[in-house]
Amino acid sequence: MQSEQSVESVVRHFQQELSGTSCRLVAVSKTHPVELIREAYDAGQRLFGENRVQELTAKQPALPADIEWHLIGHLQTNKVKYVAPFVHTIQSIDSLKLLLEIERQAARAGRVIQGLLQFHIADEETKFGLSLPEAEALLQDAAVQQLQHVRLAGVMGIATNTDEEPQLRQEFSTLRGYFEQLKARYFADDAGFREISMGMSSDYRLAIEEGSTLIRVGSAIFGRRAYPAPTT
Ligand SMILES: *Cc1c(COP(=O)(O)O)cnc(C)c1O
C-alpha cells in the first residue's frame, strides 16, 4: 500500500484519519533507517515502535530525544537493562518475571516506564502473550501491587495474519473484553489504565472500530521491509 507516497504524506494522512478519535499512531520503524524515521518525525510523528532491543538501542541516540519509543517485540529479561534508560513503553510484557525485571531496571535508571500486558489473541501458536487467567494471577501478585517504576497502562495483542474480517473483529473484541475486565477488577480508579494496542497496516481500520487506542503501523508508512541479505 502507498509505496509511492512519501513517508511524510502518509504520516499526515494518518494524522487526519485519527484526528477526532481517541486512537494514536505508533509508527513501526523496524528494519528502516534513521533517515526515514526522521522524515516521519519532521511530519510530526512522535511515537515510534521497534521490536528488537539491539536495533532500538542503535537508533535511539541518532534521533531526537522527544521521541516516545515503544518496544513492541518479545523481550528477554536479560535485555531490559539496555532499554530501561530511555524506553517510554514496553508493550510486550508477558510474564511476572519480565515485569519485575522492568521494575528493577527502571528503578536503577530513576525512571517510570509504561507497560502493556501482551495477550495471546491469534489462533497461531507462535505468537507470545498471556491468557486472561495468567494476567489475573500476575496482577494479584503482591510484588505487582507495590510497583513504583512501572505504570501498567493497558493491553496489547497481535491478531492472526488473515484477511478474514469476522475473525479479526472477533480477536480485537476479545482483547477489548480483556481490557474491560481488568479495568473493572484492578484499575477502576486508575485513569492511566486506558490503552488497547491493536491493529497493524492491514487491519488497523477494523481495530479502530473495535476500540483500539494505539495502532502499530509499519509497512503502510515506510514501505515493505527489506530484510538483510543472508550472509554467505
Ligand atoms: C512489525 C510489527 C507491526 C507492524 O506491522 P505492519 O504490518 O508492517 O504494519 C505491528 N506490531 C508488531 C508487534 C510488529 O512486530
Automatic annotation (TrEMBL):
<dbReference type="InterPro" id="IPR011078">
    <property type="entry name" value="PyrdxlP_homeostasis"/>
</dbReference>
<comment type="similarity">
    <text>Belongs to the pyridoxal phosphate-binding protein YggS/PROSC family.</text>
</comment>
<dbReference type="Pfam" id="PF01168">
    <property type="entry name" value="Ala_racemase_N"/>
</dbReference>
<dbReference type="GO" id="GO:0030170">
    <property type="term" value="F:pyridoxal phosphate binding"/>
</dbReference>
<feature type="domain" description="Alanine racemase N-terminal">
    <location>
        <begin position="10"/>
        <end position="224"/>
    </location>
</feature>
<feature type="modified residue" description="N6-(pyridoxal phosphate)lysine">
    <location>
        <position position="30"/>
    </location>
</feature>
<comment type="function">
    <text>Pyridoxal 5'-phosphate (PLP)-binding protein, which is involved in PLP homeostasis.</text>
</comment>
<dbReference type="InterPro" id="IPR029066">
    <property type="entry name" value="PLP-binding_barrel"/>
</dbReference>
<protein>
    <recommendedName>
        <fullName>Pyridoxal phosphate homeostasis protein</fullName>
    </recommendedName>
</protein>
<dbReference type="InterPro" id="IPR001608">
    <property type="entry name" value="Ala_racemase_N"/>
</dbReference>
<keyword id="KW-0663">Pyridoxal phosphate</keyword>
